[in-house]
Specification:
Length: 432
Amino acid sequence: MTSSSWEPSVEGLSGSELAALSFERLKATLRYVYEKSPFYRRRFRDLGGDARNLSAPEDLELIPFTSKEDLRNNASSEVFAVPESDLVRVHMSSGTTGAPIVVGYTQRDIQTWSNLMARSLSAYGMTRNDIVQVAYGYGLFTGGLGFHYGAERVGAMVIPTSTGMTTRQIEIMQRARTTVLCCTPSYALYIGEKITQMGVDPRRDLSLRFGVFGAEPWSEGTRKRIEEYLGLVAYDHYGLTEMSGPGVAVECQERNGLHVWTDHFYPEVVDPKTGESLESGERGELVLTTLSREATPLVRLRTGDITSLETGRCECGRSFPRITRIHGRTDDMLKVKGTIVYPRQIEEVILDLPDVGNAWEMVVERKVGRMDSLTLRAEAASANVDIPSLRKELVEKLRQKLFLRVKVEILEVGDLPRFEGKARRVIDLREL
Ligand SMILES: [Zn+2]
């Protein structure tokens, strides 16, 4: 690890030095939001005002969570800690329900975010010699601009293709000798399929070294497929718009969980039902507090992402604690006949089977007076697949994994939609 011009040697700090730095910033954040954010001042006053003073990190548990609903239901001017004239940019989270959440950035927030993205991309091994194709969407979504600014800060050359126009995307990749691809894992799979159709051999015709894939939970099976298709090393990445965007946690080259940048984000994992803090290693909902943001500081945001915290040193030498790869989101969690199902669990089963293609979706239905039914619609990988036996195998594997009877429909290649950004995997047709 080398320290770089965008950052002093934070990455070399020991676990206790890092914890001390994180705690100092946590205390400063609580004082800052009390002084500057009308929303938090009201909240903390209701608690008697003591919320500004923590004597130990555990005291944070006494402070209420911030939910995404809180951010939707309060005007941004209430949540923001700076006057509007100090903002230089806003992004919005897409949110499947309700109004979008507006996140603001000051000049310094953009700097901090770019530096964190540069640190993240360097952890994957990016250098100034890389040619980086950013195929995340540019716009209100934070993926495109987040990766763009970070890669530029590293000194690499960025090709801002954004999503879409996949054939051209691949031609550019060939001609410019792109070495790093950044996009959602669903889009990486789609690009992979297209590459095969075009007769491009990734190992002969492309120069990709590695890819950074985030913004949706994805399985090890998907990782294997992407690596096979694109001839690169596939890394996971974690972030969310409410925390600036990408750049919250990264998989190092050991690929054994994602290091959380705890000098900028304070992580906790809680029981999603009771809100009680969980021990490290226990799976629950990730809760994050920003430690360096000026415009939109957030305290104990419920992210909706299911993971666990792992402490202990990593082979890479970093002391930053790790989260395990995201298991699912409370937003796309399905309750079918009393059983909780996350799309990633389905993905783990099906993408391990070479006879199943890359596209799939789940349909949940409930006819009035009947029980819920869950149907998996997946594509066969080719015309040579024995469909009845594949269907049987899938029904059995899903029953073992989910303890649930899932109907399986096998379709032909190309029957299901492809996604250039985040994939839509769940179609809920339940009648109320
Ligand atoms: Zn590591």
